């Protein structure tokens, strides 16, 4: 079935993504007529019911948007609230938050690289099948993922929806001695991340290099996690406060998630590739070296190589976590006192999947008047559709099964979290 | 015959050090999360010097008090039962072997604890648990092993909290038995009168070469402890109590208190004499190994009285009745003493602020 | 730890399984290590452990004269009993005990014995019947009143016939629902008393069944002139240890595991009349 | 314990409105995952595998709440496909945080979030699975505890009733040796009326429990609300406290209303 013709291919359920969605591609010969990343994950209406809740509840409530990256939500919510309430936290609290975030990155990237994405490259339906032939690889992945979870659990009590992060600091901060047991495992994890990068760099990738606008945070001295200006390779350089002046959400009929566009530019890309390309210089030497060894040098444009970039970020996160273990001293108080006031606060942080923006308007009692949340997957959604639009013509000679597989893989390159965007992915390939 | 010594703070440090040298894990009061709890200590510096607690029904606050010596805090939420009758203990493991299974008993030896700062009411509580767990017919090996390996440094109380009523229960504030050594803070809590209770205690005292106590120190100590007793505001009238409560099974007061009681179980778990446990069986996913765990339980839970067909005590009223009647009446028949030592923990640590002394009084009316 | 840890089960192997009714099975078990079986008296119970599933109090239903085996009759009502009755010959279970106060077979010597059982309650009483029938001349009259839900739910049917043929013995059975082929009595067990003439002053009664049935039987016995102290009942409560540590089986001032399960009615009469004790 | 060798139970994992956290708990059991996959046949688990075997299933694990017409139908179908249906997490067992819409005008909610509300089709309420079909076992929590999930799996395989107690968080809190935040700090805590299972996490981290395991077996919310008032909480505070991740669970729903009255 290699001759171009009008045909319809349907894949009802896309697996190994977080949430529920569908993909619809309509082709006429070589021409792609329509691509829709349909998100039919039922809407949960967080921004609506956040109204009337107190500022201090936002981190725990918004965490429930996503079980994969709850810390990202907690962090963005906390930073936005702290901006609104004019709070500065102790440098050690800041450090601890970075450590917390590193834990989530390690867990989330470990999950995606080994359990969700690698099976695509190696031709398995899942990591469990993969484990039958490559037991050590999967075991390494699980242990790496667990190392991230150990950080999160230690700081926050549990892997998912941890309970310690708070506006103003933490409910409870650990002593140095409590953190110490993490060290050995993180040392192992650092080595394992390097091995991971080398391993995934051997995966075969098709050649595909769209002309992306990369958007990520950039911080003067650090690889971005919690803070930074929002920059792009097309010259964007703004603070989080200006985010809504430059980015716009559109509501399209086929999706329960809002689509974001860069005003005047169109679709853009957030996430590991963007962070890596825009902040390569801020990676620790060891991560840069690993990247070079794996022939990953900025700009990396091939989204199928994002698996390698995630592995490099794993190296960074393990290295950063180890650095924090050395530098940490418990702050004098776990958190500073917070006084409510009427104000607006905005913040963006780097979730594993990219920029996560929150804005809150508070009344004088600290109750939320309006809330706005823009998760990374909403931002990437138009870009995913564009990727498919650009990828499909080159695949027209392939079988339906092959096209479907590639299309699915192209979506998985984004590690889309539909729970965030709202959730589940389904592919309907319609060629007429 | 008990012998009496004079100790200062360095001598106390020396005592803790000596016990550690002898291979004991020293456990004593220290401040954590806004309360004085019991945990491992390594020196006097770990003790809650400068802290005093304020306690009321459902309320505890640990406040700075520069005049407070290391033992002026009055008991907090944790009790020694945590160390002797642990909250969770594995009873045994079992391994599958071609269809059959093999029981693997615990092999680790019991920890050796030196408890520092045991109050008179708590000594009474330990003696009560001894009767339950080392009782006539059966002995609990987990408790027994820990109990045997124990060294007890009692400290007589020189302050009482508003929730204390040991005087009326005749269990304190002065420790009379069940300790190896007993200390009474004197001279504003910076000096101690030491008293030996056992040969082991006397041996340690001898080894450390403590000087004999002058007689005026002994009378000062006796007086401060008596003052602590006089300062107690709560009491339970023991006379005829067991009979009165047994007869009060249908008293309307149970309904009243059941409106406030949340059946959360805090009082029973905070209580130093409550001994009830449940067991849980666990197994690995592949079914190759199983374990049986024992955990603190409470007569306030629904499952506690479950038999096939449903729980016997479904109403909170009947559960509260079980607790209070067991403590103050049935216990007497079971073990020859009340099950309550007057430490006041169930009053302070009840999140609804229910006061057992008040309930007992109302039930007699 | 200690070799005489009362919480450690001893492995027994299932030697024989007999289906008594659709949900009740008798398991004959023997010590895996071939050491002598645990000694027991009629009315005592064991804690039976099914590996990885749980542990339960189950009365010993076998004969004290059987020096090799411990026999249990189990009605499947829930998770652990389900697993227990599905054990097959050769499977292992854990046994602790025996625990508890036995039936007063010594005290009953020379007296008339009235045994009243409801449902599975016959199992803990079977050792009493064995005991008496083996020493028939040492006891007075023997009456067994047995109530079951239906004819199919009657336990030990063959033995019921044997027992009824023993000298000076009467066995009366009744069911709640008879069905068309049933020609025996229908009704609660207390209605059977009108068919037996008691000599109350020389009678001792042993009663085991659902609590409500025991309450009515005890009252009935009392109205027929049997002294409270001569009425014994076997109580049931949740049990986790069998040796008075877990506290679950408390029944007023008594621990059913060590002060019972067999109680003299005069001791617990007021508690049996009260609610949620 | 499995005495006779039997086929591995076929398990399906299904998702409704939720954050994915509860099903992720299975993947977060890193040490046990491969053993679990050996012991059960993971036949349908889209988040983790492209293999999607058709039903019927021996066990269905359902995450998420019912919020759309389509989902209300889908759960009927899933129920028919699953011999044992186990719901996991606060969304599935109580409607989740998204059940806060149940107090509001949903159309207004949708308008607040979406520019083109006509594209959105949703029910007025977010409800638990048990409000739609019979459920065999509920595992509480927002998220569930992975230890409890593993216990449910191991217990089911062993033929044991899972050790999932229904008593209060306080039981675990005291066993863990936490200092009661309510008594010692005056911090309101839902622990006394919340079901155990998390290991008394929040009090261990110096904050009050926010009730993510839902109501315990006999929740006396009136008494707790009274205590909250003693601690200086306003009726709005009390309403918010009960209107969390298990807001629509009946005892909490009721208690959150009481907050208004006082
Ligand atoms: C002294 C004594 C002797 C008994 N003798 C027999 C006997 O010979 N034959 C027989 O079939 N049954 C007997 N029983 C009753 C038997 O123990 C219960 O039927 C059994 O515990 C039900 O457990 P399950 O797991 O099957 O039921 P579920 O209803 O599933 O019970 C769940 C759990 O609750 C606990 N539980 C439930 N009922 C009881 C109970 N009555 N006592 C203690 N714990 C309980 C157990 O831990 C049990 O595993 C006796 C009970 C007692 C107290
Ligand atoms: S009061 Fe309750 S928990 Fe305490 S010992 Fe008595 S029965 Fe057990
Ligand atoms: S902190 Fe909360 S959960 Fe813990 S004992 Fe107190 S009331 Fe209970
Ligand atoms: S303490 Fe309460 S809110 Fe916190 S994790 Fe446990 S159940 Fe959830």
Outline the secondary-structure elements.
The complex is a heterotetramer of chains A (432), B (365), C (277) and D (262).
Chain A: E1 9-11, E2 21-28, E3 31-38, H1 46-49, H2 58-63, H3 70-85, H4 91-122, H5 127-133, H6 135-156, E4 165-166, E5 169-170, H7 176-179, H8 182-201, E6 215-218, E7 229-232, E8 237-238, H9 243-246, E9 247-250, E10 259-262, H10 272-279, H11 285-293, H12 306-327, E11 343-351, E12 354-362, E13 368-374, H13 376-391, H14 400-412, H15 418-421, E14 425-431
Parallel strand pairs in A: 2-14
Antiparallel strand pairs in A: 1-14, 2-3, 4-5, 6-7, 7-8, 9-10, 11-12, 12-13
Helix pairs in contact in A: 3-4, 4-6, 4-12, 5-6, 6-8, 8-12, 11-12
Chain B: E1 4-8, H1 9-21, E2 25-32, E3 35-40, E4 51-56, E5 59-64, H2 81-84, E6 88-97, E7 100-105, E8 113-118, H3 120-133, H4 141-148, E9 151-155, H5 166-169, E10 181-186, E11 191-196, H6 199-208, H7 215-230, H8 241-247, H9 253-260, H10 266-270, E12 277-283, E13 289-296, E14 306-307, E15 310-311, H11 316-335, H12 345-348, H13 356-364
Parallel strand pairs in B: 2-8, 8-9, 9-10
Antiparallel strand pairs in B: 1-11, 2-3, 4-5, 6-7, 6-13, 10-11, 12-13, 14-15
Chain D: E1 10-15, H1 21-27, H2 33-39, E2 41-44, E3 57-63, H3 69-81, E4 82-88, H4 90-94, H5 106-113, E5 137-139, H6 146-158, H7 169-176, H8 181-185, H9 201-204, H10 221-230, H11 235-242, H12 250-261
Parallel strand pairs in D: 1-2, 1-3, 3-4, 4-5
Helix pairs in contact in D: 11-12
The complex binds flavin-adenine dinucleotide (FAD) and iron/sulfur cluster (3 copies).
Helical fraction of chain A: 40-55%
Averaging pLDDT over every residue of chain D, what do you get? 90
Q: Which cofactors or ions or other ligands sit in this model? A: flavin-adenine dinucleotide, iron/sulfur cluster
Which percent range describes the beta-strand content of chain D?
5-15%
Low-confidence stretches of chain A: 422-432
Q: At the third CATH level, what is the topology name of the largest domain in chain D? A: Rossmann fold
Instruction: Return the domain count of chain A.
Output: 2
Q: Any idea what the CATH architecture of the largest domain in chain D is?
A: 3-Layer(aba) Sandwich
Measured by residues with Cβ under 8 Å of the partner chain's Cβ, the largest interface is: A-D, 70 and 64 residues
In CATH, the homologous superfamily of the largest domain in chain D goes by the name NADH:ubiquinone oxidoreductase-like, 20kDa subunit
What is the third-level CATH name, the topology of the largest domain in chain A?
Cytochrome-c3 Hydrogenase, chain B
Biggest sheet: strand arrangement of chain A:
1-14-2-3
Look at the structure and give the mean pLDDT of chain A. 89
Question: Judging by the overall fold, what is the CATH architecture of the largest domain in chain A?
Answer: Orthogonal Bundle
């Amino acid at each position: 079935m290699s001759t171009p013709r009008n045909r319809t291919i349907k894949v009802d359920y896309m697996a190994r993504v977080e949430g529920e969605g569908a993909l619809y591609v309509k082709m006429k010969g070589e021409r792609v007529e329509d691509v829709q990343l349909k998100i039919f994950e039922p809407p949960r209406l967080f921004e609506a019911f956040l109204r009337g809740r107190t500022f201090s509840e936002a981190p725990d409530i918004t965490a429930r948007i996503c079980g994969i990256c709850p810390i990202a939500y907690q962090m963005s919510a906390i930073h936005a609230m702290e901006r609104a309430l004019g709070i500065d936290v102790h440098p050690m609290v800041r450090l601890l938050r970075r450590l917390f975030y590193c834990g989530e990155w390690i867990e989330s990237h470990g999950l995606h690289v080994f359990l969700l994405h690698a099976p695509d490259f190696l031709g398995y339906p899942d990591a469990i099948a993969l484990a039958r032939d490559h037991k050590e690889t999967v075991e390494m992945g699980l242990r790496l993922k667990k190392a991230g979870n150990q950080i999160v659990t230690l700081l926050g009590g549990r892997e998912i929806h941890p309970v310690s992060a708070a506006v103003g600091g933490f409910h409870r901060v650990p002593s140095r001695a409590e953190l110490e047991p993490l060290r050995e495992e993180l040392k192992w994890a650092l080595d394992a991340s390097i091995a991971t990068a080398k391993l995934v760099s051997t995966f075969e990738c098709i050649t595909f290099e769209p002309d992306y606008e990369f958007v990520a945070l950039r911080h003067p001295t650090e690889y971005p996690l919690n803070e930074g200006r929002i920059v792009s390779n097309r010259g964007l350089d703004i603070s989080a406060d200006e985010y809504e002046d430059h980015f716009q959400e559109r509501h399209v009929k086929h999706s329960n998630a809002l689509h974001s566009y860069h005003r005047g530019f169109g679709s853009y890309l957030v996430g590991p590739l963007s962070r890596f390309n825009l902040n390569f210089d801020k990676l620790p030497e060891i991560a840069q070296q690993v990247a070079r060894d794996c022939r990953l040098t900025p700009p990396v444009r091939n989204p199928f190589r994002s698996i390698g970039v995630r592995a490099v970020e794993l190296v960074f996160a393990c290295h950063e976590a180890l650095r924090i273990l050395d530098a940490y001293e418990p702050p004098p108080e776990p958190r500073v006192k917070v006084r409510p006031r009427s104000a607006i606060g905005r913040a963006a942080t780097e979730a594993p999947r990219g920029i996560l923006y929150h804005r809150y308007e508070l009344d004088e009692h600290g109750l939320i008047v309006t809330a706005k949340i823009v998760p990374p997957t909403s931002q990437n959604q138009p870009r995913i559709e564009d990727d498919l639009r650009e990828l499909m013509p080159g695949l027209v000679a392939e079988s339906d099964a092959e096209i479907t597989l590639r299309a699915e893989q192209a979506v998985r390159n984004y590690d889309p979290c539909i729970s965030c965007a709202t959730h589940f992915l389904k592919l309907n390939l319609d060629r007429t | 015959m008990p012998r009496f010594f004079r100790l200062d703070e360095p001598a106390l440090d020396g005592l803790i050090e000596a016990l550690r040298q002898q291979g004991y894990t020293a456990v004593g009061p220290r401040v954590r999360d806004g309360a004085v709890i019991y945990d491992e200590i390594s020196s006097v510096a770990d003790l809650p010097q400068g802290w005093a607690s304020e306690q009321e029904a459902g309320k505890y606050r640990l406040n700075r008090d520069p005049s407070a010596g290391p033992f002026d805090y009055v008991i907090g939420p944790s009790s020694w039962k945590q160390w002797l009758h642990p909250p969770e203990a594995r009873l045994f493991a079992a391994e599958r072997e071609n269809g059959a299974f093999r029981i693997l008993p615990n092999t680790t030896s019991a920890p050796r604890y030196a408890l520092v700062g045991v109050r008179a009411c708590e000594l009474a509580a330990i003696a009560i648990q001894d009767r339950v767990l080392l009782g006539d017919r059966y002995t609990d090996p987990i408790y027994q092993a820990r109990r045997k390996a124990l060294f007890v440094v009692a400290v007589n109380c020189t302050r009482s909290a508003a929730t204390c009523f040991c005087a009326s229960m005749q269990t304190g504030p002065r420790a009379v038995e069940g300790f190896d050594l007993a200390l009474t803070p004197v001279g504003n809590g910076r000096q101690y009168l030491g008293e030996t209770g056992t040969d082991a205690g006397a041996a340690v005292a001898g080894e450390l070469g403590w000087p004999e106590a002058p007689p005026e120190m002994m009378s000062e100590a006796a007086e401060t402890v008596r003052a602590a007793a006089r300062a107690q505001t709560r009491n339970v009238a023991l006379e005829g109590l067991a009979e009165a409560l047994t007869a009060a099974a249908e008293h309307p007061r149970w309904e009243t208190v059941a409106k406030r009681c949340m059946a959360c179980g805090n009082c029973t778990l905070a209580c130093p004499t409550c001994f009830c446990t449940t067991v849980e069986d666990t197994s690995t996913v592949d079914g190759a190994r199983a374990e049986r765990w024992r955990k603190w339980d409470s007569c306030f839970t629904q499952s506690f009285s479950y038999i096939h067909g449903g729980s016997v005590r479904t109403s909170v009223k009947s559960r509260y009745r079980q607790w209070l009647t067991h403590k103050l009446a049935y216990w007497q028949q079971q073990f020859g003493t009340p099950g309550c030592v007057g430490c006041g923990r169930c009053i302070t640590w009840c999140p609804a602020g229910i006061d057992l002394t008040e309930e007992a009084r109302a039930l007699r009316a | 730890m200690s070799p005489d840890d009362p919480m450690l089960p001893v492995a027994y192997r299932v030697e024989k399984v007999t289906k008594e009714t659709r949900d009740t099975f008798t398991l004959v078990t023997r010590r895996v290590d071939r050491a002598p079986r645990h000694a027991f008296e009629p009315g005592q119970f064991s804690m039976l452990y099914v590996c990885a599933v749980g542990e339960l109090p189950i009365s010993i239903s076998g004969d004290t004269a059987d020096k090799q085996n411990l026999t249990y009759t189990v009605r499947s009502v829930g998770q652990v009993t389900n697993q227990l009755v599905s054990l097959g010959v050769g499977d292992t279970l854990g046994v602790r005990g025996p625990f508890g106060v036995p039936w007063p077979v010594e005290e009953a010597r020379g007296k008339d014995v009235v045994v009243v059982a409801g449902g599975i309650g016959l199992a803990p009483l079977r050792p009493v019947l064995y005991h008496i029938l083996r020493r028939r001349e040492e006891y007075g009259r023997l009456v067994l009143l047995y109530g079951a839900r239906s004819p199919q739910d009657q336990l030990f049917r063959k033995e019921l016939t044997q027992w009824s043929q023993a000298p000076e013995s009467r066995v009366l059975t009744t069911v709640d629902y008879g069905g068309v082929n049933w020609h025996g009595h229908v009704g609660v067990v207390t209605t059977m008393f009108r068919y037996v003439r008691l000599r109350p002053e020389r009678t001792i009664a042993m009663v085991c069944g659902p609590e409500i049935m025991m309450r009515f039987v005890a009252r009935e016995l009392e109205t027929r002139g049997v002294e409270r102290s001569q009425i014994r009942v076997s109580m049931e409560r949740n049990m986790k240890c069998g040796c008075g540590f877990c506290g679950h089986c408390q029944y007023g001032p008594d621990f059913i595991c060590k002060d019972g399960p067999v109680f003299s009615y005069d001791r617990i009469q007021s508690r049996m009349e009260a609610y949620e004790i | 314990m499995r005495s006779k060798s039997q086929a591995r139970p076929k398990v399906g994992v299904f998702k409704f409105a939720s954050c994915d956290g509860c099903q992720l708990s299975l993947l977060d059991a890193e040490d046990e995952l491969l053993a679990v996959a050996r012991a059960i046949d993971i036949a349908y688990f889209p988040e983790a595998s492209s293999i999607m075997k058709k039903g019927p299933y021996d066990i269905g694990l359902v995450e998420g709440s019912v919020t759309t017409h389509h989902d209300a139908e889908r759960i009927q179908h899933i129920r028919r496909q699953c011999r044992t249906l186990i719901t996991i997490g606060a969304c599935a067992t109580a409607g989740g945080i998204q059940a806060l819409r149940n107090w509001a005008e949903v159309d207004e909610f949708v308008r607040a979030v979406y520019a083109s509300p006509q594209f959105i089709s949703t029910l007025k309420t977010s409800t638990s699975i048990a409000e739609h079909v019979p459920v065999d076992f509920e595992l509480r929590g927002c998220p569930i505890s992975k230890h409890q999930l593993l216990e449910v799996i191991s217990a089911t395989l062993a033929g044991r009733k899972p050790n999932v107690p229904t008593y209060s968080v306080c039981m675990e809190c005291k066993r863990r040796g936490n200092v009661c935040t309510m008594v010692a700090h005056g911090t309101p805590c839902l622990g006394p009326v919340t079901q155990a299972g998390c290991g008394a996490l929040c009090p261990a981290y110096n904050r009050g429990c926010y009730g993510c395991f839902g109501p315990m077996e006999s929740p006396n919310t009136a008494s707790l609300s009274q205590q909250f008032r003693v601690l200086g909480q306003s009726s709005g505070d009390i309403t918010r406290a009960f209107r969390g991740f298990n807001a629509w669970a009946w005892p909490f729903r009721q208690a959150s209303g009481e907050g208004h009255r006082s």
